[in-house]
Amino acid sequence: MIKDDLQLLISERRARIGVIGLGYVGLPLIVEFCLKGFNAIGFEVDETKTAEVNAGRSYIVDVASENLKKCVDDGKLTATTDFSRLAECDVIIICVPTPLRKTKDPDMSYILTAGGEIQRYMRPGQLIILESTTYPGTTDEILQPMFEEKGFKLDVDFLLAFSPERVDPGNPQFQTHNIPKVVGGVSPDSTDIAAMLYGQIVDNVFPVSSARVAEAAKLWENTFRAINIGMANEMAKLCNALGIDTWEVVTAAATKPFGFMPFYPGPGIGGHCIPLDPHYLSWKARQHGFDSQFISLAEQVNSTMPAYVVELASTALNDDKKAVNGSKILILGVAYKKDIDDMRESPALSIIDLLRADGADVFYHDPFVPKVTFDHAYTIGDAEPLYNKELSDDLISNSDCVIICTEHSNVDYDRVCKLAPLVVDTRNALSSDLRDNSRARIVRL
Ligand SMILES: NC(=O)c1ccc[n+]([C@@H]2O[C@H](COP(=O)([O-])OP(=O)(O)OC[C@H]3O[C@@H](n4cnc5c(N)ncnc54)[C@H](O)[C@@H]3O)[C@@H](O)[C@H]2O)c1
Known about the structure:
Layout: H1 2-11, E1 16-20, H2 26-35, E2 39-43, H3 47-54, H4 65-73, E3 77-80, E4 91-94, H5 109-121, E5 126-130, H6 138-149, E6 158-162, E7 181-185, H7 188-199, E8 205-208, H8 211-242, H9 246-253, H10 277-287, H11 293-303, H12 305-319, E9 328-332, H13 347-357, E10 361-365, E11 371-372, E12 386-387, H14 393-397, E13 401-404, H15 413-419, E14 422-425, H16 432-436, E15 441-444
Parallel strand pairs: 1-2, 1-4, 2-3, 4-5, 5-6, 7-8, 9-10, 9-13, 13-14, 14-15
Antiparallel strand pairs: 6-7, 11-12
Helix pairs in contact: 1-7, 5-6, 8-10, 8-11, 12-13
Bound molecules: nicotinamide-adenine-dinucleotide (NAD).
């Protein structure tokens, strides 16, 4: 029986693990399996990534090259673009992107392509797990029929489950092994075996009754964040209108030991999850005649934040009798969040674009990001790429305004406050000490 066979292979760590897509999610996952003694094959369409993995060099901030190299040197891990090798795997885990189309509808093409490769090369006896974030119903409505079309039977020839990834890039406290894993199969056997598999590498596994529950749980989590960040952003605007310090208010509110969880305002939301995932849920809900108003409202508020930041900078420059047009503006931090290099959906892109459209001379410093490119299709200002500038005294003092978009740790904010004439802090990056002793005028979100 497939269940017994896989149980034995997994418990003896003889099951060979295949991971499709070696990005922020897939690479840490496959390395975790290998470090726990499993042999694994990574499947990628990007040859530069397979080459890097096979050379033992990590391109993901949370994966130490030392660990990756150990897996490769021990013969536990190999990466390939040859999908026929899927047949060698006992378990196949899909970690491909789930972006949005320009219309904000789910773009399922990556899941369909990965599913198609599995369909082509699968053999009886495999457990297939989807980890990509997606709308409830994807696993049983899209993947299951693809595999059944091949003539394979669920619970006899294959098992199928969904287990959402919760990795938080750049968070040293929570990594793959200590983030509880929700697992929902399309059949009880699928749930049991997938849960058992993750139990080998993760401290806590939480099985649920179906793949749909697991899919919905992930979207609930990220929609919760998007909505609460939306509220924090609205509160920041409200506090500014009332002349109250937003950060002092939220810090005070957060002293309540129950019934309150602090979320913080910022220049907008970014990354591959929070700006995208709620749309997967509202899209699916619309198909069932349900209009999710909180999601729409949060998106509306969050998407206005880059323009709000530009407005703050513009008003502050105006106070100095300067126009945005012709001003030199230094953006500090362009990645979408602290201490990582991920530029996907970063609000800094919109802020730079809006400032350039208004005629500003914009440059940036980000120790994690050497180059920023702009998608012509979405750009209203100059679409020329920008390159990281060294944070020299001249760079700071020659700028008319510094905007802190991302509060990376390894930036000398003290020097910035001593040399710049004006700093717009969208992240509460400047401590009260720095603010009190600053020569720069400071404007906070
Ligand atoms: N980044 C995060 O923090 C995070 C957290 C939780 C969940 N997720 C979800 O996990 C999924 C993957 O996200 P990610 O951040 O790892 O994306 P990513 O872009 O970093 O990685 C995806 C990888 O898949 C590869 N790929 C694309 N099509 C492929 C195919 N057909 N076959 C093999 N490889 C293919 C790409 O080249 C890329 O390397 C998404 O659904 C995302 O929403 C991401």
